[in-house]
Design a protein that fits this description.
- By secondary structure, this protein is an alpha+beta fold.
- The chain has two domains: about 120 residues, Beta Barrel (Thrombin, subunit H); about 50 residues.
- About 40% of the residues lie in helices and about 30% in strands.
- It is built from four helices and six strands.
- It has a six-stranded antiparallel barrel.
Length: about 190
C-alpha cells in the first residue's frame, strides 16, 4: 500500500456541504452561524465529554473498580440511546460516497464549485455516528466524462479541530483494519 493511500479511504457518510463567503469564515466550525443537525451534534458532544472525562474515569476505576465499571456501563447506555435517536433521523441516514483523509475529502456534486471557494462541511461517520464539522477550501473540481452533470470535488480541510482530526484518523484506521481482516479471511477461505 502506498503511503499516500495509507490514511485515505473510500467510505459512505452523511455529508452536508454549505458554501460560505470568505469574509464569513470562522475559527469554530461548530459556531452558531452554521446550522448543525441537533441529533448529530448530540453524539459529537457526548464524545467530547467522554474524551474529557476519560482520565477521571480511569482514576475512579483505579480507586474503586466496581464504581468504575458501573460508570463505564452507564456511559455505554447513554451512547446506545444517543445512537438510537440519531439512527432514526431520516435525514442523517442518507449517505453518499466519499474519499476521506485527515487532510481533506472528495465527493461527487451535481454542480461545479469554484476553485479556492470555501465550504462548511458536516460529516457523520458510520457506524459510530461521530459528527465532524470543518471548513474546507475547494482545491479540485473535475467534470466526470461519463456523466457530464457530475463533478468530483476535492476539498482540503482549512479549519478542523484537533479532536475531530483524531476522530477521522481513528475512523480511517478502523475501516482499514476491517478491510485487512476481511481480505485475510477471504484469502484463508481460498486456500
Amino acid at each position: 500500500m502506498e503511503r499516500r493511500d495509507f490514511y485515505r479511504i473510500e467510505d459512505r457518510v452523511h455529508l452536508i456541504k454549505t458554501p460560505i463567503e470568505k469574509h464569513l469564515l470562522s475559527d469554530d466550525p461548530y459556531g452558531e452561524q452554521y446550522s448543525l443537525p441537533r441529533q448529530a451534534l448530540l453524539i459529537s458532544q457526548l464524545q467530547s465529554i467522554d474524551n474529557e472525562s476519560r482520565e477521571l474515569l480511569r482514576q475512579v476505576g483505579d480507586y474503586n473498580r466496581v464504581l468504575g465499571s458501573y460508570l463505564r456501563y452507564m456511559e455505554e447506555k447513554i451512547d446506545l440511546i444517543a445512537k438510537y435517536v440519531v439512527s432514526h433521523d431520516q435525514q442523517i441516514s442518507q449517505r453518499e460516497s466519499i474519499n476521506l483523509s485527515e487532510g481533506g475529502i472528495s465527493f461527487y456534486n451535481s454542480t461545479e464549485l469554484p476553485l479556492d471557494s470555501y465550504l462548511h462541511l458536516i460529516l457523520v461517520l458510520f457506524p459510530s455516528y461521530a459528527t465532524i464539522a470543518s471548513i474546507g477550501i475547494v482545491k479540485a473540481c473535475e467534470k466526470i466524462e461519463e456523466q457530464p452533470v457530475i463533478y468530483r470535488i476535492g476539498v482540503e480541510f482549512e479549519v478542523l479541530q484537533e479532536p475531530d482530526r483524531k476522530q477521522i484518523v481513528r475512523h480511517i484506521r478502523r475501516i482499514q483494519s476491517r478491510e485487512i481482516r476481511e481480505q485475510s479471511h477471504t484469502s484463508d477461505e481460498n486456500k
